């Protein structure tokens, strides 16, 4: 990689851009939030910056939406998409006026729990409503009561003035180009037209796309949408809307990437295939057919782009007020100084191919367009080296056009080059020899019998050869770009023999053209439009009316303009114009006049062709759209526009493999040769590096080289560059070529590749003409359309001046030549809906009475019973014919009947569920009543016991009082009667007894305290000691039995200080108010310093230290009491208490059960309720790789706390699963245990549906565990390989060092030279492994 390329990439990578993110109703009061981002910044990073700056709720999911025009089309960005790259694809005006009222912008959207996007109410953008036409204007022209050209045009004009540009003709859509943007293409309308029948809502291009998509899924048949119209009628824009809508319909939670590549391919094909014409500043000079392939589930699996007839003559010649292709002007204006020197670029007016007329277009920014082109090419997959080769070839083509010829003065039959200074530049850019280039451009080699002649070109022939070489190179380059785009859109599953897929094709081909000077290109373009009009007539008129007659229904034929004769005139052998043109091209002496004379002789009386009265080299064809005059000048040259063998041999001798691949007939062979050359070049490079290293180190005696010298050794630079290149190419693995895909894509595009014209090198074959190639590609297109169900979109120009809200007489002319009046008439009076008897019975069997057979009589009787109008249907011999009104009536009845049956089933199911619920409530009520009666009985018995105890207590108290009084009385009496000394002693003793304690009972209540509620105590005053008042307390201490783990309450007595007891109450109350560990949000348990909750980390670490080899570690459960005790211990205290808690006192199964209980108690599981549906949707894919990619794309949407905890848990489960032989816990068993814990269904989901989803959630968790196990094994394998390589290198170096010490000094230098390559080889192997 050159310094220029590195500098160019660093300039794009390091540049900072300011994104304006509009939060809308999410952050009221904020118009937009400016965010600084780089080109590589993803949408997820931008959303994080916006959330941080606006301080939004992180528990909600947000997405970025790209909006094109205010209220216009809007596309949701994936978390991995780069918004800056999207912004660089916007027009220059949108980037300069980003603060204007209507522009391109990014919106912040909120994502709902079900995965959908919350857009708010439709009143948010009043302009987004489809305007309602006034009464009297019909959205379907078949409903016109009075059908003629005037009413038809008035209806279209009235709708057009109300900005209703879409109108139906049955299932055909008419589009009138308004020449301005209408805000009717945002996702509101995508959702509005989803799963709606065609004609139920207002006409729209989305309705056609939705009808084709669902028809493909229901009927399992390919569909196609044919878009036709004049140049400037809006065909390309309609194609873009269709492609975006089709990809939006197929996205099931995550994008497939096809839309991204199509988004990048659009600007690339536009730059290389579009040019300014007299009528359009961005006219497409080629046709394309985009085929989107779908899986049977409806998701996009790939796409394919096919091009038709690139206008090569524009490269060398342009008419007045026209320009060459856009890419040349982009390159000359946007290239850097280094690129200008490298490619030898000049100013546009200095090139012959560019200075023929105008250079600029009003309002364009060529430098911005060049950067936009480079970003688009990078999105498609073009590497920087490939882009450099493409631009180098473009510069070579421009310089090739500057070569001028002159006759030699001393020889009349020889020519020379006027400006020989151009030859070295062209030879350098093409990497060919200058002498060979000069010979190829001035002489030709012819082979006669036994000898080879070198004949110089004439002056006119030399210019033709030069222009032919330039046109062939550019056309081959355009074919290669289309080929690589198809490879980027290609799905390898298409190579399988049993691959089944459906497709929807969108045809955007050049419109009918009639210029002042019409040539061979306009002749081919108008012939293609004739074929499409014939295809339209076949489906709308001819085939339909023939089917009516064969079925024997009453019908009056409708006349229409049949253009079969015009098609036979141009293409039917042996007298077709194309065939006669090919014959004239084979005669060396043929001229334009001989060609015109042959046309006259063969088709003198044909009504579809006429010749001018004056002597003019032209002829006139009567097309379906009118008469067009074609000049026969250059017809033969353009039809045989291929390079001579000398030019082909010159380009094949180029040292540039890219140029050799462009002119290759067989891409597979070129690819194999390129791989073989790369292998030998790498081998030679390594050998040369080894020899240079040996020569440099030959004079050094010490075989041990410091590591710093090896690191600074210049011979390792190629290896470093090679490693960097390999790493860079690995980032684009999805765009790497392989033999199978090359064979498949080559078979699809060989009929229209310019390299096929090089087959004239074969002696037995003649070169296929351009008209033959075009007819082959057109026949293949018609074959593809014939195998699909068609939908027609007719685009109409509103006026020739491209003004808004103006509809002139040009519309009527287009309606006439397209046969729209006849189309409306046959749609109005015909039967657009057809069913065979079997299909009708199978489709409407719900409505049919029991026993109705698939016969004419049974179906006719059924249609009469439902009271359909007699003129809205007919029953033929084998088919049922319906009009659109009748079909909608039948579909409505079918929908009502299906809904009625669904409601009946729901009613029965709900009755069953309610019955079961009632029975369970009744059983619970009986149990509660029985328990309550038992409780009342026990309370009565307890009351009796309490009353008895209370009465006994009162009696004992009374007895004790009387007993004490009597004792006092007796003592007083005895003391009075006793002697005096003994009386004093007794009186002293009595005073001590009187001062003894008295009983008191106190109760302490602490609100919110659970432990104090478990302590039953009574306090008695003992005494005061050292300032402390002690209380006699009786404790009820909970403990567990060591044998049966049952709860035991032990009673004990103690004296507790009163102040310490109150301190215990306050401490317990504070513990209750602290944070819990179970049943709380995960964000409360984590912080910036701690990504995983402490409780989870502690439990997992303990299980990995002590229970990794325990059998059934998560299958078996521990003691319920122990589980409750451990949970209370972890939940009641703070984080410090939980961390200090000793887990050695509990069984390992108890700890594992507590971990599962913590996961189940989370309010929002680890894999979140919001992403539940998306996880289930990804498991529906049949391909395991696609399923893994989908699951990980959904995991990336988790927030940081959930993602960190989930990663820690999955790593723990992988460690458990690796010990399956010991603990008997496989990945499936772990998924069964933990799926209900980390991937729970939301409460809003029906219970029956949640039971059915158990297998999907289990398979999803098992998939994650298995994928992480594979990555873990791969890393272990790499580590083992590195250790083995390191030990082998150490042992080999040790042996070499020992052997070199033992030999004599005079042989030491020779032995060192022999061993250096070995050391180098070992070191290389070890470095490659690293």
TrEMBL record:
<feature type="domain" description="Rho-GAP">
    <location>
        <begin position="1080"/>
        <end position="1272"/>
    </location>
</feature>
<feature type="domain" description="Myosin motor">
    <location>
        <begin position="136"/>
        <end position="895"/>
    </location>
</feature>
<dbReference type="InterPro" id="IPR036023">
    <property type="entry name" value="MYSc_Myo9"/>
</dbReference>
<dbReference type="GO" id="GO:0045198">
    <property type="term" value="P:establishment of epithelial cell apical/basal polarity"/>
</dbReference>
<dbReference type="Pfam" id="PF00620">
    <property type="entry name" value="RhoGAP"/>
</dbReference>
<dbReference type="GO" id="GO:0005096">
    <property type="term" value="F:GTPase activator activity"/>
</dbReference>
<feature type="region of interest" description="Actin-binding">
    <location>
        <begin position="778"/>
        <end position="800"/>
    </location>
</feature>
<keyword id="KW-1133">Transmembrane helix</keyword>
<keyword id="KW-0479">Metal-binding</keyword>
<dbReference type="InterPro" id="IPR046987">
    <property type="entry name" value="Myo9"/>
</dbReference>
<dbReference type="GO" id="GO:0045202">
    <property type="term" value="C:synapse"/>
</dbReference>
<dbReference type="InterPro" id="IPR000198">
    <property type="entry name" value="RhoGAP_dom"/>
</dbReference>
<dbReference type="InterPro" id="IPR000048">
    <property type="entry name" value="IQ_motif_EF-hand-BS"/>
</dbReference>
<keyword id="KW-0966">Cell projection</keyword>
<keyword id="KW-0518">Myosin</keyword>
<dbReference type="InterPro" id="IPR027417">
    <property type="entry name" value="P-loop_NTPase"/>
</dbReference>
<comment type="function">
    <text>Myosins are actin-based motor molecules with ATPase activity. Unconventional myosins serve in intracellular movements. Regulates Rho by stimulating it's GTPase activity in neurons. Required for the regulation of neurite branching and motor neuron axon guidance.</text>
</comment>
<dbReference type="GO" id="GO:0005884">
    <property type="term" value="C:actin filament"/>
</dbReference>
<keyword id="KW-0862">Zinc</keyword>
<dbReference type="GO" id="GO:0044295">
    <property type="term" value="C:axonal growth cone"/>
</dbReference>
<dbReference type="GO" id="GO:0008270">
    <property type="term" value="F:zinc ion binding"/>
</dbReference>
<dbReference type="GO" id="GO:0034330">
    <property type="term" value="P:cell junction organization"/>
</dbReference>
<keyword id="KW-0963">Cytoplasm</keyword>
<feature type="binding site">
    <location>
        <begin position="229"/>
        <end position="236"/>
    </location>
    <ligand>
        <name>ATP</name>
    </ligand>
</feature>
<keyword id="KW-0472">Membrane</keyword>
<dbReference type="InterPro" id="IPR028558">
    <property type="entry name" value="RA_Myosin-IXa"/>
</dbReference>
<keyword id="KW-0863">Zinc-finger</keyword>
<keyword id="KW-0175">Coiled coil</keyword>
<dbReference type="InterPro" id="IPR029071">
    <property type="entry name" value="Ubiquitin-like_domsf"/>
</dbReference>
<keyword id="KW-0067">ATP-binding</keyword>
<keyword id="KW-0547">Nucleotide-binding</keyword>
<dbReference type="GO" id="GO:0005524">
    <property type="term" value="F:ATP binding"/>
</dbReference>
<protein>
    <recommendedName>
        <fullName>Myosin IXA</fullName>
    </recommendedName>
</protein>
<dbReference type="GO" id="GO:0016459">
    <property type="term" value="C:myosin complex"/>
</dbReference>
<dbReference type="InterPro" id="IPR001609">
    <property type="entry name" value="Myosin_head_motor_dom-like"/>
</dbReference>
<dbReference type="Pfam" id="PF00612">
    <property type="entry name" value="IQ"/>
</dbReference>
<keyword id="KW-0009">Actin-binding</keyword>
<keyword id="KW-0812">Transmembrane</keyword>
<dbReference type="InterPro" id="IPR036961">
    <property type="entry name" value="Kinesin_motor_dom_sf"/>
</dbReference>
<keyword id="KW-0343">GTPase activation</keyword>
<dbReference type="GO" id="GO:0016020">
    <property type="term" value="C:membrane"/>
</dbReference>
<feature type="domain" description="Ras-associating">
    <location>
        <begin position="15"/>
        <end position="113"/>
    </location>
</feature>
């Amino acid at each position: 990689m050159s310094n220029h390329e590195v500098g160019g990439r660093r300039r794009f990578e390091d540049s900072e851009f300011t994104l304006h993110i509009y939060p809308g109703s999410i952050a009221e009061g904020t118009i937009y939030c400016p965010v600084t981002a780089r080109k590589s910044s993803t949408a997820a990073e931008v959303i994080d910056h916006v959330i941080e700056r606006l301080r939004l709720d992180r528990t909600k999911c947000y997405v970025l939406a790209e909006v094109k025009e205010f209220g216009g089309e809007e596309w949701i960005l994936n978390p991995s998409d780069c918004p800056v790259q999207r912004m660089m694809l916007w027009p220059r005006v949108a980037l300069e006026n980003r603060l204007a009222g209507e522009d391109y912008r990014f919106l912040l959207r909120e994502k709902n729990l079900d995965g959908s996007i919350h857009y708010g109410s439709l009143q948010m953008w009043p302009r987004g409503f489809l305007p309602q036409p006034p009464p009297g204007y019909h959205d379907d022209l078949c409903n016109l009561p009075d059908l003629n050209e005037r009413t038809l045009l008035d209806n279209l004009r009235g709708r057009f003035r109300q900005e209703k540009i879409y109108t139906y003709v049955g299932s055909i859509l008419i589009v009138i180009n308004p020449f301005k943007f209408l805000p009717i293409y945002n996702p509101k309308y995508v959702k509005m037209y989803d799963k709606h029948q065609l004609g139920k809502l207002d006409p729209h291009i989305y309705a056609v796309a939705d009808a084709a998509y669902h028809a493909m899924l229901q009927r399992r048949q390919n569909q196609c949408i044919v878009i036709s119209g004049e140049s400037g009628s809006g065909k390309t824009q309609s194609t873009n809307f269709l492609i975006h809508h089709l990809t939006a319909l197929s996205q099931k939670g995550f994008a497939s990437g096809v839309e991204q590549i199509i988004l990048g391919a659009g600007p690339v094909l536009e730059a290389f295939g579009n040019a300014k014409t007299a009528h359009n500043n961005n006219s497409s000079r080629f046709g394309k057919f985009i085929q989107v392939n779908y899986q049977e589930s409806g998701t996009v699996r790939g796409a394919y782009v096919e091009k038709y007839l690139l206008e090569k003559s524009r490269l060398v010649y342009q008419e007045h007020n026209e320009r060459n292709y856009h890419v040349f002007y982009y390159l000359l204006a946007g290239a850097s100084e280094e690129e200008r020197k490298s490619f030898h670029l000049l100013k546009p007016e200095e090139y012959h191919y560019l200075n023929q007329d105008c250079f600029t277009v009003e309002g364009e920014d060529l430098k911005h367009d060049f950067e936009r082109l480079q970003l688009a090419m990078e999105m498609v997959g073009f590497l920087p080296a490939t882009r450099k080769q493409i631009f180098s070839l473009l510069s070579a083509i421009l310089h090739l056009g500057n070569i001028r010829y002159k006759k030699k003065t001393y020889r009349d039959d020889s020519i020379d080059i006027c400006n020989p200074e151009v030859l070295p530049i062209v030879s350098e850019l093409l990497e060919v020899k200058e002498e060979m280039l000069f010979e190829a451009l001035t002489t030709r080699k012819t082979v006669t019998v036994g000898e080879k002649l070198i004949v110089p070109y004439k002056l006119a022939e030399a210019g033709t050869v030069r222009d032919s070489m330039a046109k062939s190179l550019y056309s081959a380059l355009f074919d290669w770009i289309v080929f690589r785009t198809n490879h980027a859109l290609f799905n390898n599953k298409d190579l399988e023999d049993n691959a089944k897929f459906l497709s929807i094709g969108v045809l955007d081909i050049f419109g009918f053209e009639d210029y002042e000077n019409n040539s061979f290109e306009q002749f081919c373009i108008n012939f293609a439009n004739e074929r499409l009009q014939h295809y339209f007539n076949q489906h709308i008129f001819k085939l339909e009316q023939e089917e009516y007659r064969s079925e024997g229904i009453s019908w009056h034929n409708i006349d229409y303009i049949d253009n079969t004769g015009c098609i036979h005139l141009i293409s039917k052998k042996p007298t077709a114009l194309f065939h006669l043109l090919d014959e004239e091209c084979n005669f060396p002496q043929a001229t334009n006049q001989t060609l015109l004379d042959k046309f006259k002789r063969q088709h003198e009386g044909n009504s579809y062709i006429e010749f001018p009265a004056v002597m003019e080299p032209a002829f006139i064809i009567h097309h379906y759209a009118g008469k067009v005059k074609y000049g026969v000048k250059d017809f033969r040259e353009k039809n045989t526009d291929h390079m001579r063998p000398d030019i082909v041999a010159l380009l094949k001798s180029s040292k540039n493999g890219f140029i050799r691949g462009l002119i290759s007939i067989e891409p597979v062979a070129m690819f194999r040769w390129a791989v073989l050359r790369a292998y030998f070049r790498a081998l030679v490079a390594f050998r040369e590096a080894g020899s240079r290293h040996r020569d440099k180190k030959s004079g050094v005696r010490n075989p041990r080289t410091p590591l710093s010298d090896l690191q600074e050794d210049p011979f390792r630079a190629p290896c470093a560059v090679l490693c960097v290149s390999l790493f860079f190419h690995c980032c684009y693995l999805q765009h790497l070529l392989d033999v199978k895909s090359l064979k498949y894509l080559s078979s699809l595009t060989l009929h229209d590749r310019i390299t096929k014209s090089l087959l004239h090198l074969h002696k037995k074959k003649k070169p296929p003409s351009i008209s033959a190639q075009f007819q082959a590609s057109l026949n293949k297109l018609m074959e593809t359309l014939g195998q699909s169900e068609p939908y027609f979109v007719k685009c109409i120009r509103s006026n020739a001046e491209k003004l808004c809200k103006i509809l002139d007489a040009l519309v009527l002319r287009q309606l006439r030549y397209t046969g729209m009046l006849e189309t409306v008439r046959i749609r109005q009076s015909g039967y657009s809906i057809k069913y065979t008897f079997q299909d009708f019975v199978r489709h409407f069997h719900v409505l049919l009475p029991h026993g109705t057979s698939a016969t004419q009589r049974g179906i006719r009787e059924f249609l009469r019973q439902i009271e359909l109008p007699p003129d809205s249907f007919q029953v033929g011999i084998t088919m049922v014919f319906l009009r659109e009104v009748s079909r909608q009536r039948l579909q409505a009845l079918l929908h009502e009947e299906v809904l009625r049956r669904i409601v009946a089933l729901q009613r029965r199911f709900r009755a069953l569920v309610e019955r079961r619920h009632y029975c369970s409530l009744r059983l619970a009520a009986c149990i509660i009543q029985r328990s309550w009666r038992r409780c009342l009985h026990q309370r009565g018995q307890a009351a009796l016991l309490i009353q008895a105890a209370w009465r006994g207590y009162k009696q004992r108290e009374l007895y004790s009082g009387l007993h004490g009084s009597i004792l006092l009385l007796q003592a007083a009496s005895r003391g009075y009667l006793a002697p005096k000394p003994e009386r004093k002693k007794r009186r002293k003793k009595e005073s001590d007894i009187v001062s003894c304690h008295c009983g008191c009972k106190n109760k302490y209540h602490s609100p919110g305290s659970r432990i104090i509620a478990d302590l039953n105590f009574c306090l008695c005053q003992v005494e005061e000691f050292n300032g402390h008042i002690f209380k006699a307390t009786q404790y009820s201490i909970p403990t567990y039995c060591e044998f049966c783990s049952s709860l035991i309450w032990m009673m004990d007595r103690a004296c507790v200080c009163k102040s310490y007891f109150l301190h215990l109450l306050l401490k317990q109350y504070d513990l209750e108010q602290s944070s819990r560990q179970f049943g709380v949000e995960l964000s409360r348990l984590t912080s910036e310093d701690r990504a995983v909750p402490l409780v989870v980390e502690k439990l997992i670490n303990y299980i990995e230290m002590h229970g990794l080899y325990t059998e059934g570690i998560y299958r078996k459960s521990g003691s319920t009491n122990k589980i409750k005790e451990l949970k209370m211990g972890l939940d009641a205290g703070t984080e410090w208490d939980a961390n200090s808690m000793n887990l050695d006192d509990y069984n390992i199964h108890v700890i594992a059960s507590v971990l599962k209980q913590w996961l189940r108690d989370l309010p929002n599981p680890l894999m979140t309720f919001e992403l539940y549906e998306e996880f289930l949707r990804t498991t529906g894919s049949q391909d395991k790789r696609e399923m893994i990619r989908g699951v990980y794309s959904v995991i990336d949407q988790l927030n940081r706390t959930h993602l960190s905890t989930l990663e820690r848990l999955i790593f723990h489960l992988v460690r458990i699963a690796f010990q399956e032989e010991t603990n008997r816990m496989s990945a499936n068993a772990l998924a069964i245990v933990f799926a209900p814990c980390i991937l729970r269904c939301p409460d809003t989901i029906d219970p029956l549906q949640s039971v059915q989803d158990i297998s999907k959630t289990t398979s999803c968790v098992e998939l994650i565990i298995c994928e992480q196990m594979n990555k873990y094994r791969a890393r272990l394998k790499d580590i083992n390989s590195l250790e083995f390589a390191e030990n082998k290198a150490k042992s080999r170096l040790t042996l070499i060092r020992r052997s070199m010490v033992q030999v004599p000094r005079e042989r030491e230098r020779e032995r060192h030279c022999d061993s250096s390559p070995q050391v180098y080889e070992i070191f290389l192997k070890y470095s490659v492994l690293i």
